[in-house]
Specification:
Blueprint lengths: L3 E2 L1 H15 L3 H16 L10 H9 L10 E5 L3 E5 L5 H19 L1 E9 L5 H10 L3 E7 L20 E6 L6 E6 L5 H10 L8 E2 L5 E2 L12 E2 L4 H23 L12 E8 L7 H16 L15 H13 L1 E2 L4 H11 L9
Parallel strand pairs: 3-4
Antiparallel strand pairs: 1-12, 2-3, 4-11, 5-6, 5-11, 6-7, 8-9, 8-10
Length: 350
């Protein structure tokens, strides 16, 4: 079993390291909270596993340390920001600060951010959205990286292009956080570093041959990650990936047609207030019925009961807040050099 750590101790360490590296204190707190929440939900490739890479980006001047985004265009219910390569979690926190009241006023509010740095785990932001009784959609692409080929092709054009949707029920919120590809860059990199392979052929080598070895992504020429649907129905993932590109790069007017600037993100966020439609009570009545019909559905023989997206993550979050956070074994060794450099002790395991 992986070691467990107190959540508050991990939060303090992450904030201290980010601030020591040069981030303003409010930004460091925002980034630390978001990364910790990623691990609490069980998204351990998009939690504190990102802290060491983020610290390198700050130190090397590739992540902006302070300030606010620039407003490029503004309409009553829509806006475009230039993120100035500020930390993605900080920009997303500021985005929700602006958009939640805007959605209440107009019924719907959309914001696109170009030139953000990486935004970590999308589901984290949707917890706040659902707590506010809103429905949220977040899409993200990185115009500086390509690891997913179009369906039928062998050269990467897009990133895994995550899209996330969250909404409340009378119980736990539904948090859908998926990507347009079968797996992610983060998981592929982790398995490649450990010399591991996937259980199924989720990638293609440079010659278009299916493989389960993520090491092909680092070969010359590189392989690619298959879109959702794989070799048989990958047109569906390809279509979803293009949708994310249109929502992000297309609406931002900034993306793969522009010069690369380094690891980052182009982000789309839309919030809907049910009060502007059928009303909150009617929304919950429909979603509660659907949630009940899904979770009470007879399971496939030998398989566990049906769970709603996010149900396991929210239960995991509650348990880990009480019992300690189970960090992936690769995280502590990545962070120890930064703890030594900035004289910040890594928390002792429970």
């Amino acid at each position: 079993m992986p070691p467990r750590y107190r959540a508050d101790a991990l939060l303090t360490m992450a904030q201290d390291l980010l601030q020591a590296a040069g981030l303003d204190a409010p930004i460091a707190r925002s980034v630390a909270r978001t990364l910790l929440d990623g691990d609490l939900l069980g998204h351990d490739t998009h939690g504190l596993a990102l802290l060491a890479p983020y610290l390198k980006e700050v130190e090397q001047g590739r992540m902006t340390r302070s300030g606010e985004p620039d407003v490029v265009n503004r309409k009553p219910a829509a806006m475009l920001w230039d993120g100035r390569r500020l930390p993605g979690p900080w920009l997303m926190e500021r985005a929700l600060d602006h958009m939640i009241p805007a959605a209440r006023q107009y019924g719907v509010a959309s914001l696109v951010i170009r030139r953000s740095h990486h935004i970590a785990c999308l589901a984290v932001y949707l917890m706040r959205v659902a707590e506010e009784g809103l429905l949220g959609i977040i899409a993200c692409s990185d115009p500086n990286v390509a690891s997913v080929a179009p369906f039928g092709g062998t050269r990467a054009v897009m990133t895994p292009n995550p899209i996330a949707i969250g909404f409340p029920t009378s119980g736990a919120p539904v948090l859908i956080d998926i990507s347009a590809s079968i797996t992610t860059n983060g998981m592929s990199n982790r398995k490649a570093a450990a010399g591991e392979t996937f259980a199924e052929p989720w990638l293609l080598d440079a010659h278009g041959q299916p493989t389960n070895d993520p090491a092909v992504l680092a070969q010359d020429p590189p392989g690619t990650i298959l879109p959702i649907g794989g070799l048989s129905y990958g047109h569906k993932g390809f279509g979803l990936g293009l949708t994310v590109e249109a929502l992000t790069a297309g609406l931002a007017g900034h993306g793969r047609a522009d010069a690369a600037e380094g690891w980052g993100a182009t982000v789309h966020v839309t919030l809907h207030d049910p009060d502007a439609y059928g009303g909150p009570s009617a929304f919950l009545r429909q979603m509660d019925w659907l949630a009940d019909a899904c979770t009470r559905n007879p399971p496939v023989p030998g398989r566990p009961a049906v769970r709603l997206p996010g149900q396991g993550g929210m239960a995991r979050r509650t348990a880990q807040q009480a019992e300690g956070v189970a960090l992936h074994p690769s995280i502590a060794p990545m962070l120890q050099p930064f703890c030594d450099k900035y004289a910040s002790a890594f928390p002792a395991p429970l």
